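Minutes, project check-in
Item: structure for the 241-residue chain
Input as provided by the requester:
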Amino acid sequence: MSSDQTVQSSRWLLTALGTRMFLHNEDRIPTKSAVLVVSNHRSFLDPIVLTAALGRPIRFACHHYMGQVPLLREVVTTLGAFPLQEPTHRSQHFFHQASQLLQNQEMVGVFPEGASPMVKVTSPDQIGSFHRGFAHLAWRVPVDDLAILPVAIAAFDEELIRSGIPLQLLSWFDPSEPLFNREGWHPMVLYKRTNILVGRPYWIQPQQQQQYRGKGARELVANLTAYCEDEIANLLHQGCI
């Protein structure tokens, strides 16, 4: 599917679902560089919402089970996502795939909260702790002028929450995920109205990447992770008022 088709398909799907989007700070979206989009995550619609709002295909790293379920696998890969491999190879696969895409000047998307917000209903104005894998990627990938773009998806109160798939059924497709070893259903959050708030890009320069070693690497990763987490938290506060 071409870039324009991916964006138009995302917008068509949201229209069909009755989801209305409001994009804020559009001028902050980089147009001539590789971009790593970092966002909060509550709904299966989030990759589609971000693609439709930012107007560029975003290659999202998605959960391993999405690459194992027939039909779902075809949907996510058609929209440009790449399912992660099993835990033993997951980090290497993510770094290799995302690095190649960024070096090709593509837009890559990550949800640093992981899968936890997806298996329980959470408040629209709250985020969980961020995993730091994306920050390691940002400092390691050999790309000039890489932009890390924090984006907040701030849903209004008007959203529908439905029971989706039994969690233990998902465990059949991915037994390595402990979140699936519990009773209950995977909630399906459907946005009716949502604000997409673009944060201030964090630019990574080649000379900075030379400091990515030892104690300096830990500090760079911690600072970038905190920056994105704080920026998104502040944007959510603005967007959910």
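Outcome recorded: The chain has a mean pLDDT of 82.
No further action items on this chain.
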